[in-house]
Amino acid sequence: MKEKKKKSLNESNFWVNLVLFAAFFIVSAPQSTGIPIHEWLSFVFAVPIIWHLVLHWKWIVKVTQRFFKPLPSETRFNHIWDVLLFILMAVVFFTGVLVSEVALPMMGIPLEIDPFWSSLHNTTSNLLLVMTAIHLAVHWDWIVKAFKRYLFRKPVSQKA
Question: What is the rounded distance in angstroms from the CA atom of residue 120 to the CA atom of residue 124?
Fold first, then answer.
């Protein structure tokens, strides 16, 4: 039963990550979607991020508790990288709200866009793209295996 639950969790993790990647890909290209779609999708993007954190919460807590104890270097690197990614994503989201041209004004919250926040948003957004690419590279083996297992799996033949 525990093995089936783990498989189910891994499959959920795969689909959440796939949605997260697709959403990140779309949100990261405001030139192709336009600012209104970019801003509204950025708000929606919070949902798969939170879902991703919930799916990994046990790992986050476990590694955080053991951080100053012996840990494999890969685990320690992943934890530090993930924390930095989360902080950077929070900065990108926060600065994005501060430079909102469409979403907040539509909600009755007009903002005067400060060039400092706009510059910080652009810089941290670009850094987030690079850091996310490295995050994907670190987890590439899992990604390939998950694609094969959940997206390109062969149909189970039914016996009569």
Answer: 6
Q: What is the pLDDT of residue 154?
A: 65
> Can you tell me the distance from the alpha carbon of 153 to that of 94, in angstroms, rounded to the nearest whole number?
40
- The pLDDT averaged over each successive group of 10 residues in the chain (160 residues) is 62 83 86 90 86 88 91 91 94 93 89 92 95 92 88 64
DSSP character string of 31-77 = HHH-HHHHHHHHHHHHHHHHHHHHHTHHHHHHHHHTTTS---HHHHH
**pLDDT score for 7:** 61
User: Distance (Å, rounded) from C-alpha 117 to C-alpha 135?
Assistant: 26
Alpha carbon distance 105, 115 (integer Å): 18
- Choose among 120, 96, 100, 118: nearest CA to 108: 100
CA distances from 149 to 9, 119, 134 (A): 13, 42, 23
Q: Which two tokens stand for residue 111?
A: 């903002």
The 10s digit of each residue's pLDDT in 83-97 is 999 999 999 999 999
| Per-domain residue ranges of the chain | 2-151
